[in-house]
Amino acid sequence: MSEVRWLDGASWLKSGAAARVLNLLNGDGEEARVVGGAVRNALLNIPIGDVDIATTAVPEEVIRRARAAGIKSVPTGVEHGTVTLVMDSHPFEVTTLREDTETFGRKAKVAFGRDWERDAERRDFTINGLSVDAAGRVHDYVGGLDDIAARRVRFIGDPNQRISEDYLRILRFFRIHAAYGAGEPDRPGYLACINARAGLVTLSAERVRLEMLKLMVADGAAVSVAAMAEGGLLLPVFGGVAYPGPFSAMISIERALGLAPDPVRRLGALAVAVTEDAKRLSTRLRLTNAETKALDSMGHRWWRLGGMNEDTARRRLYRLGEDRYRDRLLLAWARSGDDSSSASWRQLATLPDRWVAPKFPLKASDFIARGIAQGPLLGQVLGLAEDAWLAANFPLDESALKAIADQAVGRFARDD
Q1: What is the pLDDT of residue 103?
Q2: Domain 151-238 belongs to what architecture?
Q3: 101-108 contacts: CB < 8 A, separation 24 or more?
Q4: pLDDT per position as a tens digit, 60-101
Q5: Which class would CATH give 3-150?
Q6: Rounded CA gap, 293 and 289, in Å?
Q7: Which helix (H) or strand (E) holds 165?
Q8: Helix residue spans in 260-309 (DSSP H)
Q9: Taking a C-beta distance cutoff of 8 angstroms, is the pair 82, 94 a contact?
Q10: Which letter, b or e, does each residue of 376-387 get, where b requires 16 or more Cβ atoms within 10 Å of its Cβ?
């Protein structure tokens, strides 16, 4: 039984690229609707990202209509019924209505159909099973409208069956709940995820990484992550210990400082205590080189940053750079047990906003002029001079710099 309601204020259904795609695919016995996340977000009055479209037309007919209208079409997943149409430089995934004939994860066999209800029933969550036609009528075959009103993320049909079709739905359950749900996760869905947690190890690292990084920055991430930890769902993902307490603290600290949520920084708070953790996560989630380096830096002796005076903090900031300094310091803060209102931690965390580290003013030429030949020794003298310059609190006057350079050269002369 379908429930139909009207979507108010959806001007993007009346004009613009999405409206033109719908107009192209409607008529001559075929129907097209917007489905999934765009409908959900529109009903929740939050920004709409990608607009996905479902149609009764088979892929060949979608391509034929696009070609006749001079619209670019790309057969991105034509074996599963998906064609991407590019309208005004915006890609629209257009997928023929489907129903599963055999289900075994991402390789499910599907048959094309014309039944909107059957198509909705094969999706993951009720709030993602809605569709809206070109006139603005929202069609609900699975109870998604009531669940959106209640901010409840619920599997369509039997949660165990939905999960067995694709174990990534375990992670999506918690990520979607963190982004759109309220309160504790739906109990039947939660228990089904726990029962099927062994299936997480079958997922590709790339798919797990994408879901986990999205989860890290969702508004309700702390609740979802705590539920995952309590249900034993983080161990098969990370392959090691997780720390929900510091993760929650990191979220509070970011908000107190007015910082944008950072997925890698939050991942570090959740799963990195030492640099070895960063290496393990890099392998488990197939992180990018930049992500791995950021986590490795966070885990490197973060405990030394607590209780620093301003001079020491400046030296740390100079050595690490703004991003590495802030990430490592916030990890130390999150693990300290101090709350997000701590004045001393805030003072350290906001140092990059108040002070910009100067560049080391001495050059290789300053030491060559003092008789140091190019080669390894020159690098050593430069390093020694830089250490002395930092210890002297970044002096820039000529007399102090001359003394530092002379002392560095003299040190090596004495050693010889």
Answers
A1: 55
A2: Orthogonal Bundle (1.10)
A3: 103/164, 103/165, 104/165, 105/165, 105/166, 105/167, 105/202, 106/166, 108/165, 108/166
A4: 999 999 999 999 999 998 888 999 999 989 999 999 998 766
A5: alpha beta
A6: 6
A7: helix 159-165
A8: 263-271, 275-285, 289-299
A9: yes
A10: eeeeebbebbbe
